[in-house]
Amino acid sequence: MVVYEVDLFVNKKIYPKFKTWLDEHIKEMLTIDGFMNAKITDNKENEPHLTVQYQVSSYDKLDTYFKTQADEMRQKGIDKFGDQFRAERRISTLEPG
């Protein structure tokens, strides 16, 4: 199992709208082959910060997503919110047990 983690740093002015949009975006992400589950953490400290952890069945499925759908999915947020947020991404392995 692979964890694809996305940290989202959001301008306070758009935070409520962004969070509503993100909930729908996550639902759409979970329709992509290999994406099994998602957990969202809401950190509203200095700079509003959301972390989404997607569980993906394999590196191959994640790689296919990167090659075929990632640009389109990322662009949806940019089209809606422009430079009012930034994203940082990481990939790790989820150890069984």
The second-level CATH architecture is 2-Layer Sandwich
H/E order of the elements?
EHEEHHE
Q: How many DSSP helices?
A: 3
> Which outline best applies?
globular
What is the share of helical residues?
25-40%
- Give the strand content: 35-45%
The level 1 CATH classification is Alpha Beta
Average of per-residue pLDDT values: 92
Widest beta sheet: strand line-up: 2-3-1-4
Report the strand count.
4
The poorly predicted ranges are: none
Terminal residue distance: 11 Å
Nearest-angstrom radius of gyration? 13 Å
- Structural class based on helices, strands and sheet pairing: alpha+beta
Number of domains: 1
CATH topology, anyone? Alpha-Beta Plaits
The biggest beta sheet reads: 4 strands, antiparallel
Fold and architecture overview:
By secondary structure, the chain is of the alpha+beta class. The chain has a single domain, classed as 2-Layer Sandwich (Alpha-Beta Plaits), CATH 3.30.70.100. A four-stranded antiparallel beta sheet has the order 2-3-1-4. The longest helix has 15 residues. It is globular and about 35 Å long.
Notable characteristics:
97 residues, alpha+beta, Alpha-Beta Plaits, 3 helices, 4 strands, globular
Short note summarizing the structure:
With 97 residues, this protein is an alpha+beta fold. The protein has three helices and four strands. The model has no long low-confidence stretch (mean pLDDT 92).
How is this fold's topology laid out?
Layout: E1 2-10, H1 15-29, E2 35-43, E3 49-56, H2 59-68, H3 70-81, E4 85-93
Antiparallel strand pairs: 1-3, 1-4, 2-3
